[in-house]
Amino acid sequence: MDGHLWLAFLAASIIISLTPGPGAVMTLSVGAQHGFAAAARAIAGLQLALLIQLAIIGAGLGAVLAASATAFLVLKVVGALYLVWLGIQKWRAVPHGLGSAPLARRQRLFTSGVLVNLTNPKAIVFIAALVPQFIRPGGSEWLQFTIIGATMVAVDVVVMSCYAGLAARIRPWLASVRVQRMQNRLFGGLFIGAGAALAASSNR
């Protein structure tokens, strides 16, 4: 991949990562509730899902998902329901002391991060439309995909880490039960809104 082409892709990756989405909502929510270390587990899960999405696109399945209304609908419904379920869980969460998440909870954060990104067919379709524009015929396709994947993951890790760090800095202001309840309902509403937006999306 030429230097100027990579810089163009880098710029596109930054814009994509900065655009608020379910991953950003999860990162901010976990960072505010449990701190940066816990949010890092969710971020790792988001990146694994991103790599899986790129592998799907590399295998040509992204085009199938874009073309098949049924496949897109099934994955969209699953993703939307999962986000709404996360939102309801967050909305109904009982406020408690701020601190590090228990071990079992930290392990679930990684899995939740994977599922939040992986069940978003709109992201797969979008990446499937974007990535081929930066693949040049005649070069090693897998090498180009490796560079693209490394760039997207690196950018997303930096952006999500900034979100997590920002959320962690405001944790001292969330000590009261009233503020924690407001925070739970804010992020619960954002998750539910993200699920509704996904449910209303199309593959066009």
TrEMBL record:
<keyword id="KW-0812">Transmembrane</keyword>
<feature type="transmembrane region" description="Helical">
    <location>
        <begin position="186"/>
        <end position="202"/>
    </location>
</feature>
<dbReference type="InterPro" id="IPR001123">
    <property type="entry name" value="LeuE-type"/>
</dbReference>
<dbReference type="GO" id="GO:0042970">
    <property type="term" value="F:homoserine transmembrane transporter activity"/>
</dbReference>
<feature type="transmembrane region" description="Helical">
    <location>
        <begin position="142"/>
        <end position="166"/>
    </location>
</feature>
<keyword id="KW-1133">Transmembrane helix</keyword>
<dbReference type="GO" id="GO:0005886">
    <property type="term" value="C:plasma membrane"/>
</dbReference>
<feature type="transmembrane region" description="Helical">
    <location>
        <begin position="109"/>
        <end position="130"/>
    </location>
</feature>
<keyword id="KW-1003">Cell membrane</keyword>
<protein>
    <submittedName>
        <fullName>Homoserine/homoserine lactone efflux protein</fullName>
    </submittedName>
</protein>
<keyword id="KW-0472">Membrane</keyword>
<comment type="similarity">
    <text>Belongs to the Rht family.</text>
</comment>
<dbReference type="Pfam" id="PF01810">
    <property type="entry name" value="LysE"/>
</dbReference>
<feature type="transmembrane region" description="Helical">
    <location>
        <begin position="69"/>
        <end position="88"/>
    </location>
</feature>
<feature type="transmembrane region" description="Helical">
    <location>
        <begin position="42"/>
        <end position="63"/>
    </location>
</feature>
<feature type="transmembrane region" description="Helical">
    <location>
        <begin position="6"/>
        <end position="30"/>
    </location>
</feature>
